[in-house]
Specification:
The protein is an alpha+beta fold. The chain is about 25% helix and about 30% strand. It has three helices and six strands. It has a four-stranded mixed beta sheet. Helix 1 packs across helix 2. The termini are close together.
Length: about 140
């Protein structure tokens, strides 16, 4: 397996992601920011953070598959969420949890960052997800 994920002792416990990923492989895969849009550009889950998080993960999975990779190969996620506030963590996590089985997401997730931003490139976009993966 090209990616090993873990959380060393002494780091914040009980996070929904691992703190460290060690990857070996020759193919670096960088997935650009995915948003809650269908293949024809139709917006999904307007105003619904959980729904948009789920769709961005679905789109990220499609992008990874297109490169011959899967979520098992991911070494890092970066989520950008508009108008972030701590009370949004519930809907954010609900979106992830709603597709864990569907997408065969590793749990805990790979190392991840959640970055609050004022806005993204279109007003209806609540979340954008970038992923980095390594494969053989």
């Amino acid at each position: 397996m090209p990616v090993t994920r873990f959380s060393p002792d002494g780091l914040q416990p009980h996070t929904p992601y691992e703190h460290v990923a060690v990857a070996t492989g020759s193919r670096h895969i960088h997935v650009s920011g995915q948003i809650a849009r269908l293949g024809d550009g139709t917006s999904v889950a307007a105003g619904d953070l959980a729904g948009q998080v789920a769709q961005t993960l679905r789109n990220t999975g499609r992008a990874l598959a297109g490169a011959g990779a899967s979520f098992e190969d991911v070494v890092r996620f970066t989520f950008y969420v508009t108008d972030w506030a701590p009370e949004k963590i519930g809907p954010f996590m609900a979106g992830i949890e709603s597709v864990v089985e569907e997408l065969n997401l590793p749990w805990p997730l790979p190392p991840a960052s959640l970055i609050g931003v004022d806005h993204l490139f279109e007003p209806d976009v609540l979340v954008e997800l970038e992923a980095t993966a390594i494969s053989q």
